[in-house]
Amino acid sequence: MQQYQGGRWDASTVPSSGPAIIACNHLSVLDPLLLVASNQRLISFLIAQEYYDLRWLRPWLERSACIPVRRDGRDLRGLLQARRLLQAGRVLGIFPEGGIAREGMQKGLAWLVRESAAPVVPARVLAVRQYPSDWQTWLRRQHPVLRYGVPLHFHPDADAAEILGATRSAIATLA
After folding, report:
1. CA distance 145 to 107
2. Phi, psi of 27 (to 5 degrees)
3. Residue of 4, 58, 97, 151 with fewest CB within 10 Å of its CB?
């Protein structure tokens, strides 16, 4: 586990080449930065449209090829763009809960796995908290921990329940 000022992380298990999906729990606005800091490869994220629309944040998001999605769970445009990114051999970061500290998993993860055959790298953030505002979260001193699991490979015919259940279980075991 690597140390850095304020926290620590496991060595990334993201493959050094080819497509990969990092599926991580989502506790705060700090989570994407932890994933980026702990990886050598560029990670493009599915990101909520309202964050993508922030003028001060958008240039950074565009440079890292982040994909805006609506939170209604029906944004086919975003999923198609994510599939193209994976087909190009890139790394996609997703928070399959669909938002900070939500329960369950969105089915888009399973669709992307079946469409791209990309392995799923489970990751789990611990010991971090989202405060009432994003700015408070940024400014409060926290000591996050980031854990990575072994990449999960699924059969092309795997059903959504199998993919989502295995991914949820793999993330949960990274305590």
Report:
1. 27
2. -105, -30
3. 4
